[in-house]
Task: inverse folding
């Protein structure tokens, strides 16, 4: 069975010149306009913020080992969960897949030399860094204790923490998203190679395209919302302050108008990764291509109409709550369609058990639980009980960590040979994926129960009857942490000591695999011409697979 | 009453069995689908494991009937889930008319409760079993949330708004309540206990309190009404500069722009804090604002007093009450 330990094709040596060694020196990196180098700049930065957010999470889970709090004061605890959320959401989850894997592979997947606006791409990264600096400044001078949701009037009037620099940092960072979205949309519209029609596009491109729509339409709203909250704080204005005639609930509507679509920004690209991995490692086309592509667009659109499901107990009108609950159920349908199509793709596949496939299947399992528990929260009669409890925390971590992070790691592993020219160590990687999956479930499943029992979120101390479940969750977190540290270690190790990968070790059908690993700066020596459909394994003799000999035609292999 | 769900709180209110039944339904349906998908994925993962390195899978591109089925069936299930949840929630949002009303004010970081006779509690709420209870929630500073897991209910206390929530306690006992909207440093300490008592015990507790001299809210409100000079304009016979408040609570008020508005708690509160927002037809916009001059509890006392004027004789003119339109 093909695996990185026995890659396909010629894998004797690295290409002599490629994007990593084409030019040397710090300026060639900090002033690069090569989308691949920019992707690596992002890779380093998002990993940095992931580690910061992860450090805060570690402290949270240690603190919650005892009902009275094992580690820190309430003031510090409140800062920990706030900064964990801000770092992870705005500086890791939202940029990760688009800015790392999207930047690297969208041009290659469509047969282009780069994105439509390479300099704007670099500008996006600098804007991200500047925004990040403001937020790091906020973290280190006074911290932030408003929750990542910044509800008013707590954030605009009562909090004594570094709210202003933090909202400024997130405001600035938003422009990084907007410019990336713009870049992707224009690129996909105008730079597809000859023969690369819309319906031959890899599904990863469709997912990032849908994500880019949300980037452009949604991000300006969070920008202005945080700006208003910051202005209220600095100049005692009355947008959200009831004493001055403002409405705190207005803030929530504005905030969630972006922040709900933001969760689709976080998960759609990960779904795109899964849509690449499953066909590749089952060696057959995705089942229901147009439905999977269309579902990404449907999620992006419907996702703009569900925001007030975060506000069912704020006092909005009952009619409003009914509308948002119904729409929240509708947005779940396209996600279900994807899950059914991925599962069907496995049917009569030729399935390899390599690490990327393990991550993709892990995604499916955890996303199913996360998505189904979302139905509980969309249910008005249940949300009135579990709103703002650990049930909600468990739900969104299943999607964001069990879903988005697994998708990110799966994509990183899948494309690592192309990015680095090397293979990661397969057995160790499989072990890490399993450790991650087990650790994740141990950490977060008990939290569903904690939530139904009534434990509110954002609690630095809790009633003693909740301790057993909290200890289970913290124990799981230690295993989860190991699952993250392993890939960090062996991926770096593989850059120096890994086996040479060759052009197309899996092999896969996308255009990105038609060029060297690592690719040359201009991606393709000659602009490719596309004459095949996506994931068309049985019409690709260039891949060197045994189309005639496989069980497709030979009854001896198990029949039809 | 033991919940059919393992690992859930006691059922101590009329909503608890409803919410638990709905949850059991959701768990059953979702577990079924989760299991079905897991079984399919795991089965295919093993059955179709690659045998030879060069093998490919069978190129099946799709099936319209399957796509239709797995859109329509989940959609129908989703509509069932939505409808059942909606029914419970709509009931929750419409308090019955016969509720025992208790005021609950959240502030950083405690809950102040005021019983109908003025008896005050801090981080404690005493209620009678079997009676519909409505909590009117207010906040003095940031957004808080009053949640009682054993009752399966919660609602936000938002500064600048009144929100109400209702339940009917069904089991005598003591149940934890929590603040469930992050509100700053001691959010986790903003907890307390609901004590559900037999009606006779509740009545006894209510009257035999150790709070000497605690004025009931109506008397306290009447005192404020005089002290703050409201009485100088709001003459009871309607001849003053401002409408008489006799009979106003619960009725519709006619405004200068010919629209009518229901004179509920929120209207009364707004009229005190932002009197220019709605002017009663036939009157001038001369009322000063009391923003910043009254605590939340004082406002609630004033409202309690105004509510008590419901049963006073309505003056022939000058109350601003909208004439009945002849249709209901």
Result:
């Amino acid at each position: 069975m093909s695996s990185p330990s026995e890659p396909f094709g010629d894998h004797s040596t690295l290409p002599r010149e490629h994007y990593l060694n084409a030019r040397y020196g710090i300026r060639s990196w900090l002033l690069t306009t090569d989308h691949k180098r920019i992707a690596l700049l992002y890779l380093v930065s998002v990993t940095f913020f992931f580690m910061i957010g992860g450090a805060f999470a570690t402290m949270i889970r240690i603190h919650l080992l005892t009902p009275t709090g094992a580690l820190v004061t309430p003031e510090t605890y409140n800062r920990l969960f706030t900064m964990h959320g801000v770092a992870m959401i705005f500086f890791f989850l939202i940029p990760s897949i688009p800015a790392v894997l999207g930047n690297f592979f969208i041009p290659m997947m469509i047969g282009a030399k780069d994105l439509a606006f390479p300099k704007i791409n670099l500008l996006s990264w600098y804007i991200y860094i500047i925004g990040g600096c403001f937020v790091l400044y906020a973290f280190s001078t006074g911290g932030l204790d408003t929750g990542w949701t910044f509800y008013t009037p707590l954030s605009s009037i009562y909090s004594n923490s570094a709210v202003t620099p933090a909202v400024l940092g997130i405001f600035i960072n938003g422009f990084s998203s907007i410019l990336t979205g713009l870049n992707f949309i224009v690129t996909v519209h105008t730079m597809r190679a000859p023969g690369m029609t819309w319906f031959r596009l890899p599904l990863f491109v469709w997912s990032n395209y849908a994500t880019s729509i949300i980037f452009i339409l949604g991000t300006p709203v969070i920008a202005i919302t945080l700006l208003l909250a910051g202005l209220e704080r600095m100049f005692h204005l009355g947008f959200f302050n009831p004493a001055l005639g403002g409405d705190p609930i207005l803030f929530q509507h504005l905030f969630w108008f972006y922040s709900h679509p933001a969760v689709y920004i976080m998960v759609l690209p990960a779904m795109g990764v899964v849509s690449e991995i499953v066909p590749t490692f089952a060696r057959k086309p995705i089942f229901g291509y147009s439905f999977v592509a269309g579902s990404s667009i449907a999620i992006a659109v419907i996702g703009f109409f569900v925001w007030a499901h975060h506000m069912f107990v704020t006092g909005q009108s009952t009619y409003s709550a009914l509308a948002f609950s119904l729409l929240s159920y509708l947005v779940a349908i396209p996600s279900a369609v994807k899950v059914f199509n991925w599962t069907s793709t496995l049917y009569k596949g030729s399935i390899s058990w390599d690490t990327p496939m393990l991550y993709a299947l892990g995604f499916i399992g955890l996303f199913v639980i996360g998505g189904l528990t979302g139905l509980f929260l969309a249910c008005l009669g249940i949300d009135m009980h579990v709103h703002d409890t650990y049930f909600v925390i468990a739900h969104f971590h299943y999607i964001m960590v069990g879903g988005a992070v697994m998708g990110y790691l799966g994509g990183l592993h899948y494309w690592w040979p192309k990015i680095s020219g090397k293979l990661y160590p397969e057995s160790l990687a499989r072990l890490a994926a399993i450790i991650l999956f087990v650790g994740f479930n141990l950490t977060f499943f008990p939290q569903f129960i904690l939530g139904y029992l009534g434990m509110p979120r954002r609690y630095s101390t809790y009633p003693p009857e909740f301790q057993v479940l909290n200890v289970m969750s913290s124990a799981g977190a230690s295993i989860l942490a190991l699952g993250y540290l392993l890939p960090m270690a062996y991926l770096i190790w593989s850059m120096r000591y890994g086996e040479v990968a060759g052009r197309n070790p899996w092999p896969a059908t996308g255009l990105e695999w038609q060029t060297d690993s690592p690719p040359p700066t201009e991606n393709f020596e000659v602009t490719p011409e596309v004459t095949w459909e996506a994931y068309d394994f049985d019409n690709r003799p260039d891949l060197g697979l045994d189309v005639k000999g496989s069980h497709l035609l030979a009854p001896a292999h198990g029949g039809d | 009453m033991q919940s059919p769900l393992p690992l859930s709180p006691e059922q101590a209110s009329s909503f608890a069995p409803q919410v638990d039944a709905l949850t059991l339904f959701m768990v059953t349906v979702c577990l079924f689908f989760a299991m079905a998908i897991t079984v399919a994925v795991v089965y295919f993962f093993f059955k179709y494991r690659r045998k030879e390195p060069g093998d490919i899978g069978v190129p099946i591109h799709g099936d319209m009937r399957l796509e239709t089925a797995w859109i329509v069936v989940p959609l129908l299930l989703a509509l069932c889930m939505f409808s059942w949840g909606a029914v419970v929630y709509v009931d929750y949002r419409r308090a019955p008319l016969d509720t025992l009303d208790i005021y609950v004010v959240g502030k950083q970081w405690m809950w102040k409760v005021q019983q109908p006779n003025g008896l005050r509690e801090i981080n404690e709420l005493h209620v009678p079993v079997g009676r519909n209870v409505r909590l009117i929630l207010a906040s003095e500073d940031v957004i808080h949330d009053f949640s009682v897991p054993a009752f399966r209910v919660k609602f936000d206390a938002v500064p600048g708004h009144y929100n109400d929530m209702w339940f009917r306690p069904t089991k005598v006992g003591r149940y934890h309540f929590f603040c469930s909207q992050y509100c700053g440093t001691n959010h986790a300490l903003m907890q307390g206990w609901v004590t559900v008592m037999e009606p006779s015990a509740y009545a006894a507790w209510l009257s035999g309190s150790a709070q000497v001299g605690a004025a009931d809210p109506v008397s306290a409100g009447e005192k404020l009404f005089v002290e703050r000079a409201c009485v100088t304009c709001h003459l009871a016979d309607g001849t003053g500069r401002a409408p008489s408040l006799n009979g106003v609570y619960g009725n519709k008020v006619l405004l200068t722009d010919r629209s009518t508005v229901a004179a509920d708690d929120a209207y009364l509160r707004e009229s005190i804090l932002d009197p220019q927002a709605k002017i009663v037809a036939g009157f001038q916009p001369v009322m000063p604002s009391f923003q910043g001059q009254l605590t939340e509890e004082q406002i609630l006392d004033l409202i309690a007093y105004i509510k008590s004027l419901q049963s006073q004789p309505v003056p022939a003119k000058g109350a601003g009450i909208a004439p009945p339109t002849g249709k209901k």
